[in-house]
Amino acid sequence: MSIRIHEGKSAGTEVTRRSFLRTGTAVAGGMAALAAALSPLKDLKPEEEFSLEKFIQKHYKEMTPDDMKGALDRITREVEHRYKVRPEVRDMRPKAGVEFVYALNLSRCIGCRKCVYACVEENNQSRAPEIQYIRVIEMPRGTLDLEKGNHHYERPTVPDGDHFYMPVQCHQCANPPCVKVCPVEATWQDDDGITVIDYDWCIGCRYCEAACPYWARRFNFVKPEIPEADINKDMGYLSNRPRPKGVVEKCHFCLHRTREGRLPACLEACPTGARKFGNVLDPNSEVSQILKTKRVFVLKEEVGTLPRFFYYFDERYPRSLDPEAKQVALSLGYTPGAGGWTPPAGDPARAIGGGEVAR
Amino acid sequence: MSGAGRTSLVLWLIGPAFLGVAAYLALVAPPATIPIGEMKIIPSDAVKGGAWRQAKVDARGVVAGSDRPCSECHKLFTTPPGENKALVQHKDIVMNHGMNTRCLNCHDGDDRDKLVLHDGTTVSFADTPRLCSQCHGTVYRDWQLGTHGKTLGSWDAKDEKHRRLTCNECHEPHSPAYKPMKPLPAPTTLRMGDQSMPKEHHGKESPLRRRSASPHEGGPEHGEPAEPSQDKTPMEPGQPAEKGGGK
Fold this sequence. Notes:
The complex is a heterodimer of chains A (about 350) and B (about 250). With about 350 residues, chain A is an alpha+beta fold. Chain A folds into 3 domains: about 1-40; about 100-315, 2-Layer Sandwich (Alpha-Beta Plaits); about 320-350, no CATH class. Chain A is built from 12 helices and 14 strands. Chain A has helices at about 1-5, 15-40, 50-55, 65-85, 115-120, 175-180, 205-210, 255-260, 265-270, 285-295, 325-330, 350; strands spanning about 90, 100-105, 135-140, 165-170, 185-190, 195, 220, 235, 250, 275-280, 295, 310-315, 335, 340. Chain A is elongated and about 115 Å long. The termini of chain A are far apart. In chain B, about 20% of the residues are buried. Chain B has about 250 residues and is mainly α. Chains A and B meet through helix 2, helix 5, strand 3, helix 9 and strand 10 of A and helix 1 and strand 3 of B.
């Protein structure tokens, strides 16, 4: 640096008072600027975004049991500091002989979005800005055209009779494009078929988000906001522990629940039983029976991702929406009204109760 | 000015310039805003897991205020098996079960604490699948395989917590069809949120808008200004446009 200062006079290393002051001031100014630029670092507390422990933590697959214990302790401390609740963080490993598959009955889904918010609550997803793993797409009846789909629908009640509903979340592909594009191997497919993310290893490049044809991945643009009272204390290292800013997250089939035998939160919240989950390697499991007996399909089969998430219809229409049933009701003399169908006078159904019939 | 003088002037200015920028960022510049929206609080009850309705496992408390078995009253009153009459009690029961409009099709006329099959066998209130299977055979078959209905506890049938819900834990037996219900609010996530963008984009209809907001009757049009919806969380204007082509 000092070479330029002596330019033109002599190429020697002679230091004059003038050049010393010039150089000194420039260096002092530069140092001050550097200090100013780094000053936000001094506000970081070890319990928050950055700690040496986290910085030197190894990749998930290279961690020894002791390393993992240390990491879980650190996460517990961080969560306790941030949300004032003491969580129970575990590291759940896949079980042998288990491959998870999801099946969703589109004839039964009514688009109530209960699964969406059950997932948000279970998985400690950011409330502001909102992060949701499940998108419920509303499509006109008689088509499976995603271009006509709408996930912003707001209706007084669902189903409305002219649309059907298709919830989309991570499909846990057997040939996952998101895993292929990750430059740091922060996301991989586990033995039970669940594609997981190590939030401590993710660098936030968002390649996986772009690679996913189902738009299943979400990025934390800011530090997630979760009300302290709503924190789910049952946490898994690879699943629902609170995420830092700048990492990608997605549905993981509630692996902290399913790897110990429980069912995903979205399934438990579904009021209609449209969601089915189980082990496809067990020939008698519910999902195996569905694959055997129902006409199932996968979303965007042509992109070759081999999803473990299957959709099926088992009725042409839910009974309440069946146009043929409406024809039958009309021919029997039922009159349609705002609240539903009214049976004709003299019908026994009228004598019992009010004869109010939901549509 | 000589070349050397200019160089030294630049060097003189670098430090103060950096300091000026740092001071500006620290003191003057407004913090960068990310449109995070407001927090939407969904009550836990709305997404509680479990059976959709509380099924009766024993024949109790059907009449308001009573916690006695059905037979306590019904040994005093008998219902003729023929025509149905307007009832004094049980007026809250809404019948919408197709042609199945007779009480004694399912309820046992002799033992009011039981349900009855076509062959006269009585079953308990907790054993509705056997009763319903008499008419709904295909659904019963699906239910046995686990492809109809809801399972709770565990996905593993060998787990003792694995429990398949019975018919009346989802369906109200007198009016079994599901009633329409109010959906929970639409997403306002950064990528999925209210994509406020002009209808016209360089004189053309915006392709993003065309895709993300499908035509739907009655609902608020997306991107339409000055129409704040009650259900929607207000978002700050200048949302990032939907990435990935709105799909």
